[in-house]
Structures are given as structure tokens and as C-alpha cells.
Design brief:
Layout (H helix, E strand, L loop, with lengths): L1 H10 L7 H32 L3 H22 L3 H5 L3 H24 L27
Length: 137
């Protein structure tokens, strides 16, 4: 069966693609090739920049990690620094703060409440109707 197919295929004349199609196909292929080359150049550029001394870059990264770890551990408050707070003084300061807040709450509660301003209907332009004599325009 393959031999019959091959015979029929061999008998078919070879046709060329239209010139417009050929130009479009070649243009697209060139564009893709340029884009692929640019992307490859970008990756190659980074690799060429890092490649001369990869161990040096790894050592520099390790130094940064160590410095970051030291910085985090040095700035962290220790348990002894937290324990140095005098509990009686802390309790006294909290009591004074509560007392001041209670005084403020009493002062606010003693003030008479202001009545809410009545809602005045406004027209589409934002003017009060009362200002124009109370008649809608």
C-alpha cells in the first residue's frame, strides 16, 4: 500500500509557493531568529559577566548572608535587656496612664452632646432651596 502511495506522490508535479507567501514566511523567520538571538545574547551577557569568577561571586554572596545574620542577631533585644525593666516602676507608669485615660473619659462624658444639624435638602446645583426663596427652579 505504501508503494502505491509513493507512486502517486512521485507522479504529482512539485509546485512552488507563491512569491508573496515566500516573502512573508522568510520575514517571519528572520524576525524570530533576531528575537531568539537577542534573548540568547542577554543570557550570554549575564553569564559572561559572572563567569570569569563564579567562586568570587559565591564568596561575596556568603559574606552578605553572614553580615545580614550578624546584623539581625546584634539588633535583636536580648532576654536580659527585657528583664532589666523595673516591674514596680512599670506598674506605677501603667496605673498613671490608666488614671489619665479615665480623667479624659470623664471630661468627655461631662460635655453636653451637640444636637445634629438638620438635613437641608439641596437642589441639583448644590444650593439650598431656602437661599433662593424656597421655590424649586
Amino acid at each position: 500500500m505504501n508503494s502505491e502511495f509513493e507512486k502517486k506522490l512521485a507522479e504529482q508535479p512539485l509546485r512552488t509557493a507563491p512569491a508573496a507567501w515566500r516573502a512573508d514566511i522568510l520575514r517571519e523567520a528572520r524576525t524570530e531568529a533576531v528575537q531568539h538571538t537577542l534573548a540568547a545574547d542577554a543570557v550570554t551577557g549575564w553569564r559572561s559577566w559572572f563567569w570569569p569568577a563564579p567562586r568570587a561571586w559565591a564568596a561575596l554572596t556568603a559574606c552578605w548572608v553572614v553580615l545580614l545574620a550578624v546584623q539581625l542577631f546584634v539588633n535583636a533585644p536580648s532576654a536580659t535587656a527585657v528583664a532589666q525593666v523595673d516591674p514596680p516602676r512599670l506598674a506605677l507608669a501603667l496605673a498613671e496612664k490608666r488614671h489619665a485615660l479615665l480623667e479624659l473619659d470623664v471630661a468627655v462624658a461631662a460635655q453636653p452632646a451637640k444636637p445634629a444639624a438638620p438635613h437641608l435638602p439641596r437642589g441639583a446645583s448644590g444650593w439650598l432651596r431656602e437661599e433662593r426663596g424656597g421655590l424649586p427652579c
